[in-house]
Amino acid sequence: QVQLVESGGGLVQTGDSLRLSCAASGRTFSTYAMAWFRQAPGKEREFVARINWTGGSTGYADSVKGRFTISRDNAKNTAYLQMNSLKPEDTAVYYCAAGVTFLNWNVWGQGTQVTVSS
Q1: Distance, CA of 66 to chain centre
Q2: How many CB atoms are closer than 10 A to CB 64?
Q3: CA 22: distance to chain centroid?
Q4: Exposed, middle or buried, 24 (CB in 10 Å: 0-12/13-18/19+)?
Q5: What residue ranges in the chain does DSSP mark as E strands?
Q6: Model confidence at 30, in pLDDT bands (50, 70, 90)?
Q7: Which of 4, 31, 48, 73 could form a disulfide with 36 if both were Cys (CB 3.0 to 4.6 A apart)?
Q8: How far is residue 27's CA from residue 1's CA, in Å, rounded to a whole number?
Q9: How many Å apart are CA 26 and CA 44, to the nearest integer?
Q10: 11 pLDDT higher than 80
Q11: What b/e string do you get for 70-106 counting C-beta neighbours within 10 Å, with b at 16 or more?
């Protein structure tokens, strides 16, 4: 089973960009689908984006479609979330997750804070 560590969060202004990274330990990273979720204060955790094990299939929440891009580099055991045109409503703790399928995200990172000021 993999272990996940997120990085790349920070404080930015509206319209700025950030790239989050999710580094995975273990040799089985390439067999997992990966996803990003986020949780804003006082709100439930919500899905942001997902990618299959090859990187050939991706999906996004409507709220980030066209602004965020999920990718992965299996040689580096790392998944990424490129976030462009950030808005204050994107402020949240961002978590990466791994799963054998898109229906079961059973490995989670500790989260990284993203704050977008207006």
Answers
A1: 15
A2: 22
A3: 7
A4: buried
A5: 3-7, 10-13, 18-25, 33-39, 46-51, 58-60, 68-73, 78-83, 92-99, 107-108, 112-117
A6: confident
A7: 48
A8: 9
A9: 29
A10: yes
A11: bebeeeebbbbbebeebeeebbbbbbbbbbeeeeebe
Q: Per-residue pLDDT for 27 more than 80?
A: no
Secondary structure in 3-state letters for 79-93: EEEEECCCCHHHCEE
CA distance 62 to 98: 21
Given a cut of 80, whether residue 75 has pLDDT beyond it is: yes
Say if CB 100 and CB 29 are below 8 A apart.
Answer: no
CB neighbour list of residue 9: distance below 8 Å, 6 or more residues apart: 18, 20, 94, 112, 113, 114
Tokens found for residue 72: 């992965």
* Full strand arrangement of the beta sheet holding 78-83: 3-7, 18-25, 78-83, 68-73
